[in-house]
Specification:
heterodimer, A: 245 residues, mainly alpha, 3 helical TM bundles of succinate and fumarate reductases, globular, B: 248 residues, alpha/beta, Ubiquitin-like (UB roll), Fumarate Reductase Iron-sulfur Protein, Chain B, domain 2, six-stranded mixed β-sheet, two-stranded antiparallel ribbon, 32% helix, 17% strand, elongated
Chain lengths: 245, 248
């Protein structure tokens, strides 16, 4: 392997005197990991907004994810495992996608100046894509690490306590905006990149979907803040359907 | 430093062109925008406006043109931030009567609005080996091999590229990374890859564009397709080549 890399370093080709296939693999892997994350976030935001249907709905969904139909009372480690899997895909996607970021001040200033002159929607969209991607290096990592290490703290009260009493709402607000915009821009880019659907129609649909997800995300974050505020004096107490009845 | 000149011909709207002036081969030359005011005439294109300035106000102004009909691609320049062909752009499009003209970025700057696209295009053609590769001996006394009409149409469609350089000047990837071959190069490879006369395989094309300066460098920002004066299907052709190249 080392010798293969040395040959490529010296000749620009591999030992077969051919161009490396790695750029092709990386390009595909960036798209595949991005698609997995987008699909995950589509469902994640819907599940998370189940709080809008009531505390019981959110509680039932949480227990469902903890596989309460197999493990008595639910097993939070299932959530830990899921968060770990997503974290791995997340890190992989970030690692591969970073190679497209402006690599120097020169590249960065040339892009910004050009984009300002051009006033072109898809070119400007890339700035949103890289800036939200950069923000998620930190915001997404904190959230995923929390879910991996404290999976038992998910539920109508536990999540609301984290959002309000543990002051996680600024993080979730920034993460929500970043993730929805990044996912929307990413899906559009996937469609354009691989030529799978009509570009103009896809853009309209994705814009509508992005607005929808931002709306339900913001409203449900508001709901968690409200529940957290009302529950602030009972911080730490867990929700049970029996208790609420 | 801004200088102002006026040309008055007959009654009509007064338009002001702010033009980038610089001669890199003259050490005394300073990059600046110079303003020229002239009277708009019916159907005036930027090419006509520039010619008026050249013949009546400032004979030192440099800009490129050949065909004046949107065919040669020589008069591509940046018009109010957007790369366009001067001969296909009407001055009446600009409601505020102010037009800023700059040379195309990413190409070697000759002087004022003139850039050297030709040498770059030639180098690109050599890089992607832009010619039919065939081991077959051509016998001009025999009728050429038949080509499916739909395939021929598809090839002709991509052959409509006039190499104006607008796709490169509209591409932020190219602006950042000078070695990126851009839509014009990728379109050229797509053209030969669908040509049944060309015997090259996908593996052969991978050797030409299978890296981050080629197909995998494209970030799908779509400046190329949205500014192409010939409305070439660049997005779908680049996607087509990408799909082929990841399978190699």
């Amino acid at each position: 392997m080392q010798q293969e890399h040395i040959i490529e370093l010296l000749t620009g080709k591999d030992s077969r005197k051919k161009k490396s296939r790695i750029p092709a693999r990386l390009d595909l892997l960036q798209s595949v990991t991005g698609l997995i994350l987008v699909l995950f976030i589509l469902f994640h935001l819907l599940f998370e907004s189940s709080i809008l249907l009531g505390k019981d709905a959110m509680y039932a969904l949480t227990k469902g994810f903890e596989m309460s139909f197999i493990f008595e009372g639910g097993e939070p480690l299932v959530i830990s495992f899921l968060a770990l899997m997503i974290f791995i895909v997340f890190i992989l996607h970030a690692f591969i996608a970073t190679r497209k970021f402006p690599a120097s001040y020169r590249e960065s200033i040339r892009y910004r100046t050009h984009a300002k002159l051009l006033k072109h929607e898809d070119t400007n969209l890339w700035f949103i894509q890289i800036s939200t991607g950069f923000m998620m290096f930190f915001l997404g990592s904190v959230h995923l690490y929390t879910m991996m290490t404290q999976p038992e703290k998910i539920g109508p009260f536990a999540s609301a306590d984290r959002v309000y009493s543990d002051t996680a709402w600024p993080l979730y607000l920034l993460l929500l905006v970043s993730v929805v915009l990044h996912a929307g821009a990413g899906v559009y880019r996937l469609i354009v990149k691989w030529g799978v659907c009509d570009r103009t129609r896809s853009k309209t649909i994705i814009k509508a979907a992005t607005a929808f997800y931002l709306l339900i995300g913001l409203v449900s974050l508001g709901a968690y803040i409200r529940i957290g505020y009302e529950h602030r004096n009972d911080y730490g107490q867990r929700y049970h359907t029996e208790v609420s009845r | 430093m801004n200088k102002s000149h006026t040309y008055d011909h007959d009654s009509g709207r007064k338009i002001t062109l702010s033009i980038f002036r610089y001669n890199p081969s003259n050490p005394a030359s300073e990059p600046s925008f110079r303003e020229y005011t002239l009277t708009e005439t019916p159907g005036m294109t930027l090419y006509i406006a520039l010619t008026k300035i050249y013949t009546s106000i400032d004979h030192d102004l440099s800009f490129d043109f050949v065909c004046r009909a949107g065919i040669c691609g020589s008069c591509a320049m940046v018009v109010n931030g957007k790369p366009r062909l001067a001969c296909k752009t009407l001055t009446s499009e600009f409601a505020d009567a102010r037009i800023t003209l700059m040379p195309l970025p990413t190409f070697k700057h000759n002087k004022d609005l003139s850039v050297d696209t030709g040498n770059w295009m030639n180098a690109m053609s050599l890089k992607v080996e832009s010619w039919i590769h065939s081991k077959e001996q051509t016998d001009i006394s025999r009728i050429e091999k038949r080509v499916d009409p739909d395939t021929a149409d598809e090839i002709f469609e991509l052959d409509r590229c006039i190499e104006c350089g607008i796709c490169l000047a509209s591409c932020s990837t190219r602006i950042m990374r000078e070695d990126f071959i851009g839509a014009v190069g990728l379109n050229r490879v797509a053209r030969f890859s669908i040509d049944p006369h060309d015997e090259r395989t996908d593996e052969d094309f991978y050797e030409l564009i299978g890296d981050d300066n080629g197909i995998f460098g494209c970030m799908s920002l779509m400046g190329c397709e949205d500014h192409c004066p010939k409305h070439l299907p660049l997005q779908s052709r680049i996607a087509y080549m990408r799909r082929k190249m990841v399978k190699v």
